[in-house]
Every structure is written in structure tokens, then in C-alpha cells.
Design a protein that fits this description.
Elements: H1 3-7, H2 15-31, H3 44-56, H4 61-69, H5 80-98, H6 108-125, H7 128-142, H8 149-169, H9 173-187, H10 189-223, E1 229-235, H11 238-247, E2 259-265, H12 268-281, E3 290-291, E4 304-309, E5 315-322, H13 323-331, H14 333-339, H15 342-348, H16 376-384, H17 390-401, E6 405-409, E7 415-419, H18 424-431, H19 433-437, E8 439-444, E9 447-449, E10 461-465, H20 474-478, H21 482-492
Parallel strand pairs: 2-5
Antiparallel strand pairs: 1-2, 3-4, 4-5, 6-7, 8-9, 8-10
Helix pairs in contact: 2-4, 3-4, 3-7, 4-5, 4-7, 5-6, 5-7, 6-16, 6-17, 7-8, 7-9, 8-9, 9-10, 10-11, 13-14
């Protein structure tokens, strides 16, 4: 393990970048020297691997340096003043944000909630904090076999319920996929074993068909003049597959993307050209064409999906996207932080984040430590849970932030991201509390709808407001999200108690 191994993963590091990484490496190695993990390996291995994962997802040099130093304050091997003196305020803030709460007088779930609360507040000021934390958790999951069984289950459950969904909502699939699959066997060992065996069998059956089909597709695209593209295939994550099998009623035959072909092009127009060529030669499966380029998923995912009959008895899913879309899918917000003009990224690339949750209702944590863009929903997490007890906070997280999602549209075409089962009341409050508090009537897909109308993916919702309109107690029965319920209760005052 050397500093060069880290810098080799970085995208065009400068002399200053390399010097920073080498310095962080040396300071961390010295600070943790002689300290061992439960596995018996040097503790430095953990901070090195955390920094390595950060480099793999193309994070900035400051975040990678903080990855090396993230446990130094908690473990007492370095002081805050030493880090400030050697690395400056920016890296110190990142380290402080990730530092675990070793000295708090909390136990069990309450202690964990307090840790999350502080993590959200720090992340609201600098989104890199939560990304470093995710990389730290990923390496801990990779080495979870060295922890006693009761802790294995607790850590795996936290990972599956909090950290994997966080990575997914930040669209960092490279992290969320592995966090899910590493948690899976500790929590559901029998299901894991069954799905793993199922994938093994299906791969043996499907792979020969897929490889033959891929050659035919590449030839067909080239014959039509489309030559600037790449192809590969991916295997669906085991945990994601298990959930999909459940949604399909246990019928594995209805899951067509255990192995999926992927086509990467240079432009959006080439994506559609490739789709047209494929459909002209292979018959698509009805109802299986999904254009996530025209209408991205709520977390920003873009791609065209189609499923076709190959002609030799097989059915194959094909995913078509640009190289940039693929990088965004794998690295999510991390790719924007690294590759984009940070002054413009908030509006141009992360604007869809602003639709995730209601607009902020106060300015408690809206000052930022850096110019890194922070999703509005991260700030909302910090705000909404500053004064929430642990049990309520966990329930709110599961309901509002980490449940299955749908997205609905305003008449102007803006996307509003909501938990599955949300009503028009939740939609109104997700736009703004003033709109929610003054709902007069609602139109869903150009038809008048009742306030308890449960929204479906893709619904277009128009909220008509009047100054004199205000919430009544029945609205609490209509609202699914805790944020909507809190606004309604605040408007009702003592009558909601």
C-alpha cells in the first residue's frame, strides 16, 4: 500500500494534489502505527482503503486526504489543532464531520440517531462529508466478518436501512449496490443463498445467448454507420434482484435483466439512433421500452431501456446511454463534484435535487463551508431532525427519504419526488409550505381529484390555492410524509394534539 496507488487512481492530479495525498498518507500511517483492528491487521489499512475508494469514485484531493485522516481525532492519535495546522480548515471540517461520536452519553439506537443527526448537519454544509462516511462504511462492511455476530447484524441493518439508500439517493450506484449486497447475507442468509444460486444457474443459461446477441448487435450498428460506441453487460445486484423477484410475485421468468447488455455512445442522438436500429432488426417486448433520458428517474438516472426477442428463444434487456450518463450513474454527485464547473453545477446538473423535498423552512444550517453543491434534501434532513427524538427520526427517515419513490410533475414539467403512497397533499407541501397550507382544489392529469388521491408515477398535478383556504384535521389522514404532517399540525396548533 503506497500513496502512488492512490494518486494513480486520480484524474490528472497536479503536483500540489500529489503532495497533499502523500502528506496525508504519511501523517495517517505514523499516527496509526502499531494500532490493530479486530482482524489483527494494521488499523492504517482501513483508512488507506477508505481513501482508495474515494479515489476510485473520483473525489477531490481534499476529500481523499480527509479519508486518510477520518478516524484520527476519534482514536486520539491526532488533535484538531494538529490537523488544522498541517492541512487547514477545509480538511479539518471534513474530518470533524465524519468523526464518530465515541464520547457521547447515548446508548443503542438513540446514540446512533445522534450520530446521524450530526452527520446530516455536517453534510448540509459540505456534501463531501457524507460521501467520505459512505466510503468508510463500505470498507467496514467488506471486513464485517471479523466482528462478533450480534454487531454484524446491527451494522448490516444500519447499512441496508440508512447508508445504502443514502448512496442510492445521491445516485452513487457503485457504492449503494455493494453496500446492499454486503449487508444481504448477514440479514437474510437463506434468501441470499437462494438468490446467489439462482443467478449462477441463470448466468449459465443466459450468458451464451447474450454473448452471441451482443456480436449481432455490434454488427448491425456498424452496418448502419454507428461505429463510435462501446458495449458490455452487467449482472444485477443480488439484493436488488431479490426485491424485484418479490415484486414479480416470485416469478423469476418475468425478470429479464439478471444479465443486461449495455451500449455506451458519445451523444444523446446516437442513443436514439441505436434504439431505432435495434428495433428495426429485433422485435421489442411490448410495454418494456423506458426512456429515462427524456424523463430521468428522481435520483437523476438517465438511460434508455428496451427488452427484445433475440430470435433464438431468448429475451434480453438492453440499456443505452452516453458515457457521461454512465459515469453519473456509477459515481452520482461525486462525478459532478469532480468533473463539472462547480459554480454552475447546482443549477445545471443538480437542479432536480431541489424537487426532492419541501423548500427549507428556516436558515438553521444554510451556511456552507465550501463551494461544493449540496442537495436540498440533505439540508432538509438536517433541519427536520435537529429537534426530533431518535425513534421518530428513524421512522421519518424510512418514510420520507428511504422508501420506494415515485415522481409526479407540476404543469410546468418540474419533477417532484415523493415516497410511494403519497397523496396530493404531500405533493403540495413538497412544493412549498404556503402552497400546502392554502390548497383549495387539485387537478390530477387534468381531472379534479380529492385530497386523499394517492399519486402514481408520472402523474401531472396542479394545485389551486386560495388565501382563505387552510388545513383541517382530516388532512392529517391524507398526508403520508412527516414533513406535510408537521406543517399541517403547525397550522392547526393545539387542535392537532
Amino acid at each position: 500500500m503506497t500513496a502512488k496507488e492512490i494518486t494513480a487512481l486520480m484524474d490528472s492530479p497536479t503536483v500540489e494534489d500529489i503532495a497533499l495525498i502523500e502528506k496525508a498518507y504519511a501523517v495517517a500511517e505514523k499516527a496509526h502505527r502499531g494500532v490493530l483492528r479486530k482482524s489483527g491487521e494494521p488499523y492504517f489499512n482501513h483508512v488507506f482503503e477508505t481513501a482508495k475508494i474515494l479515489a476510485e469514485i473520483n473525489m477531490c484531493p481534499q476529500a481523499i486526504a480527509a479519508g486518510f485522516l477520518h478516524d484520527s481525532i476519534e482514536d486520539g492519535v491526532l488533535t484538531e489543532e494538529e490537523i488544522r495546522k498541517e492541512f487547514g480548515e477545509e480538511i479539518l471540517f471534513l474530518v470533524q464531520g465524519v468523526t464518530k461520536l465515541g464520547k457521547l452519553k447515548y446508548r443503542g439506537a438513540e446514540r446512533h440517531m445522534e450520530s446521524l443527526r450530526k452527520l446530516f448537519v455536517a453534510s448540509a454544509q459540505d456534501i463531501r462529508v457524507i460521501i467520505i462516511k459512505l466510503c468508510d462504511r463500505l470498507h467496514n462492511m467488506r471486513t464485517l466478518q471479523h466482528v462478533r455476530p450480534d454487531k454484524q447484524k446491527r451494522i448490516a441493518l444500519e447499512t441496508l436501512e440508512i447508508y445504502a439508500p443514502l448512496a442510492y439517493r445521491l445516485s452513487i450506484r457503485k457504492l449503494s449496490r455493494e453496500l446492499e449486497d454486503l449487508s444481504f447475507p448477514y440479514l437474510y442468509p437463506e434468501e441470499y443463498k437462494n438468490v446467489k444460486e439462482l443467478v449462477k444457474q441463470k448466468s449459465v443459461e443466459t450468458l451464451p445467448h447474450l454473448e452471441k446477441f451482443m456480436k449481432s448487435v455490434k454488427k448491425a450498428l456498424a452496418e448502419e454507420g454507428l461505429t463510435n460506441f462501446n458495449t458490455d453487460y452487467r449482472q444485477k445486484g443480488l439484493y436488488s434482484l431479490s426485491k424485484k423477484i418479490i415484486r414479480k410475485g416470485g416469478e423469476i421468468e418475468k425478470v429479464y435483466d439478471i444479465l443486461a447488455m449495455r451500449i455506451f455512445t458519445e451523444s444523446v442522438s446516437d442513443c436514439y439512433k441505436a434504439l431505432g436500429i435495434i428495433h428495426s432488426k429485433w422485435r421489442p417486448l411490448p410495454g418494456r421500452i423506458k426512456d429515462y433520458i427524456a424523463v430521468p428517474k428522481p435520483n437523476g438516472y438517465k438511460s434508455i431501456h428496451t427488452t427484445v426477442f433475440t430470435g433464438d428463444g431468448a429475451i434480453v434487456e438492453i440499456q443505452i446511454r452516453t458515457h457521461e450518463m454512465h459515469r453519473a450513474d456509477e459515481y452520482g454527485i461525486a462525478s459532478y463534484l469532480r468533473y463539472k464547473d462547480l459554480k454552475n453545477v447546482q443549477n445545471k446538473e443538480l437542479g432536480w435535487f431541489n424537487q426532492f423535498l419541501p423548500k427549507s423552512i428556516n436558515n438553521l444550517i444554510h451556511s456552507t463551508k465550501s463551494d461544493k453543491p449540496t442537495p436540498a434534501w440533505i439540508k432538509e434532513l438536517a433541519e427536520s431532525h435537529l429537534a426530533t427524538n431518535g425513534e421518530d427520526m428513524m421512522e421519518d427517515l424510512k418514510t420520507d427519504f428511504f422508501s420506494q419513490r415515485i415522481f409526479a410533475f407540476t404543469p410546468k414539467g418540474d419533477v417532484v419526488d415523493l415516497p410511494l403512497g403519497s397523496t396530493v397533499v404531500d405533493f403540495a407541501y413538497a412544493i412549498h409550505s404556503d402552497i400546502g397550507n392554502h390548497i383549495s382544489s387539485v387537478m390530477v392529469n387534468n381531472k379534479i381529484a380529492s385530497l386523499d388521491k394517492e399519486l402514481q408515477n408520472g402523474d401531472c398535478v396542479e394545485v389551486i390555492t386560495k388565501k382563505g383556504a387552510k388545513p383541517n384535521r382530516k388532512w392529517l389522514d391524507h398526508a403520508k410524509t412527516s414533513m406535510a404532517r408537521k406543517h399541517i399540525k403547525a397550522s392547526l396548533g393545539d387542535k392537532a394534539e
